[in-house]
Structure formats: C-alpha cells, structure tokens
Amino acid sequence: MSSNPQNLSGSEIRQKFLDFFAQHGHQILPSASLVPEDPTVLLTIAGMLPFKPIFLGQRTPEFKRATTSQKCIRTNDIENVGVTKRHHTFFEMLGNFSFGDYFKEQAIAWGWEISTQVFNLPKERLVVSVFEDDDEAFAIWRDKIGVTEKRIQRMGKKDNFWESGATGPCGPCSEIYYDFHPELGDENIDLEDDTRFIEFYNLVFMQYNKDIEGNLTPLANQNIDTGLGLERMAQILQQVPNNYETDLIFPIIQTTANIAGIDYVKADEKTKISLKVIGDHIRAVVHMIADEIRASNTGRGYILRRLIRRVVRHGRLIGISGEFTTQVAETAILLSESAYPGVRKRENAIKAELQREETNFLKTLERGEKLLEDIINKAKQENQTTISGIDVFKLYDTYGFPQELTAEIATENGLNIDEAGFAAEMEKQKQMGRDAHETIDLTVQGSIDKLAAQITVTDFVGYTEAIASTKVEAILVNGVAEEEAEVGTEIQILLEKTPFYAESGGQIGDRGY
User: Any idea which fold 10-241 has?
Assistant: First the structure.
C-alpha cells in the first residue's frame, strides 16, 4: 500500500531536511555567500562549492558531517528559464556531506529514508540511476534497498559522473527520480522524459580530483556530496505543474501579474514565460545584492546587470511601462527573510541598486527598441534570417543596447545575429582608439588651456541624452582660435554641452563619421 506525499511548504521542506540530518550527526551550517572563495568560478554554483578545499584535502574540516541549504546561481541555461518547468538561475540546494566518514551505502540508505519516510514519497514512484561502471552502487540499490533492476538505470558519464568545474573534486553519482506516471510501467524507462520524471536528489560519491589535463587522482579520503533541489521537491509535494507555481516563487509571479493587471491563470504562454522569468530572476538579484554584488560591466557584476535588465524587459513585454522592480523585490524579500535574514538587513541597498539600474536601462530601451524594431521589420521584408553585425554594433555603440539583448529579441522574431560581424566592428572601434593614441596632435593643448580660462566647462549630458542641441563656443584651426573656417578645413571645436563621451577610465571615447 503506497503512502501519500506530504503537502509541505518550501520552508517546511528545508527545515525537515536539515533536522533529519542533524539527528544523524550532521552539523547544520549556514549558507555560504554567493560570492565564492574559489577563484575559478564567479558565483556559488553548487552546495559543495564551499567545501571544495576540504574535498581536496587543503583544509581540515571542523566536522565529519555537515548539512546545509545553499543559495546557488547558474546562468549557463538562462535562455531556458521560464520556458521549461525546472530551469532557474537562482535555486536552493539542500545537501548532506561526509568528509572521510560514511560513504556509498550509508548515503544511499539515508537518501532513500528521507525520500520515503520523511517526505512520504511512494516507493513505486521512485526510479534511480547509477554511473554505468558503478556496480557497487547498483548492488546497494538492488540488494540493500530493494529497488527492482528495471528501476535502476545505468547512465553514461554525461549524466552520472559529477564534476564541479574544469578541475576539482569529482566522482560517480546516483540520482533519485520521481515518476509522475508509474502506470506506464517499467519497460523502456526514459529518464530524459521530463513530462514523466523529475530528478530531485543527487548523491555524489566524491572519489577523485580532476586536474587541468583531465587526469583523475584518488582523493585522500572518500567523501559524500549530495544535493536535493528545494524547488523540485516543492513541486512534487505541492503537486503543482512546475517549480514556478510553488510557494517559493509563485507569490513573486502573482505580485508582478497584479502590477501588470494580468490574470495568470488566463494568460497566454508567452505572458506566463515573462512572468516566470521575472519570478526567477528577481530572487537571484535580491540575493546577489544582499551578498554585496554591485551591477557593473564585468564579472559577476555584469551577470547581475544582465539579470536586472531581463526583468525590466520582460516587464515591458507584459505591459508594465513604469518602474516596478522594487515592488517585486519586496515580495522576494518577504519570502526569503526567515531563512536568510541578510536580505532584510540589506533591503535599502537592494532597492537602491534595482532602482538605479532600472531607471538607466529604461532609457536605453526607449532609445534602442524602435531602431531594433525597424531593423527586424526590414530583415523580414527582405526575407533575411540574420541581423548584420553592423546593425548590432550600432545598437550597442550608439544606444547602449547589449548584444545579448539584441540576440534574444532577434531569436523571438525568428532571426539570428551576425556575431562574427559584431566582433569585427568591436575590433575596428578598438583599433580606432589605438590609432587615436598614435595620431592625435597634442600641440593644440596649450591653446585649449587658454580658452578654458575664458569659457565655461563643457557640460557632459551623455548619461541621460544621446542627442543634444548645443552652441559652438570656440573654433580651433591648427591650434589657433578663429572666428570661422573654410569648408574642408580640419578643425577642433569646443561645445557648450555634449553627449559625447571623452576617452577616460579605460573606455574609448565617442567618435563621429
């Protein structure tokens, strides 16, 4: 007779997991920051990352066993967020870890116990996978746990050999899947069928260290690293169609829908995708800013900026014309503050960063969207499939429109962008900057310095305006101030105000043509 899964909130799932392993000798540790100590990754991408030095034998653990709920961010599948049922940028990974203590048999036994006795998942709804060469794990599942052979699937390295990155700790793994349709039987089980199966628990048997050349060296101690996806378990236990409709994310979606005046249930699929993107990304940016990441044009700061911009753009796609991110962020903070008090402590910083980025990006969108729309319409009329690199660069250089945003909008309209052409235009700009350093005649500086004492400083308006009406304050011909100049003469002019950026801070100055 099968048991019935418990209908638990996300917070209850998190606490039950931690309590279970605490009762089995694990020390509950707080989530590490999203800014990792590991220099090989920009963000914390897995629950095991904070323990990587321990797994490598570089640090002595304070405890033999630990359990955590770790904040994680991955952006490698960002285009799938909101489209599939389970892809996210931000997610929580529940984990239990053994540092040279228990190994495969105990990890498998506890994984099965918490799944079937704590969360009450029916045994007949569970399928497990093992690495194709891991006969030991296969035998444990079959002989010790009692899973039938047809419900133990051998998988290749791509699916069942876990690696934290290009280098570092790794090993074979065993995964537990939930079967939404056990009535289909045990013949021809395909774990890639995400309409039937969802993988929710990964048990990694950390046995090796992988070096830069791909060589595997046995670790000094055999370790256990596991990860149970909180959002996935919430979907199973709350019996909703996808992760986004769990109590971990759906209140954010509902807040956004209310701002847009949308009924989520009646919304079309495209609108739902935008709502899901916002629901996912706002969780990510709230926690990133809480961990003191600032938006910028490089590294993790650029990831933050990109996520905020995607939130803003998807807001516009569903009809939100004004600023809204701080309202949605408040819901995300409310959902997170009990488990992660730091988000409330950093509330002012979170909202200030969001407002600043949103305000600036809305101006960028207003400048660039109309031109991109014209480019797309022209391409369609001419039966083209690709937007030229020159057009992509013009959007980027003149309007501040990010290349990946142009690519995303192009894809939505069935078009590609010429990435190679864009890269070539970027290189041309860099070369012009290098040439400018070599050819600019600085002998006129003395004349400019004299003029500077007589006229007001040029007002730079480029942060808010791309086009400006201005007054010519002075004309220089061969370094000498003149009242006028003949047609065709090379001159320099000083303006009352300008939207053109001067070369400074490592950024190439604006150039005309």
Answer: BirA Bifunctional Protein; domain 2 (3.30.930)
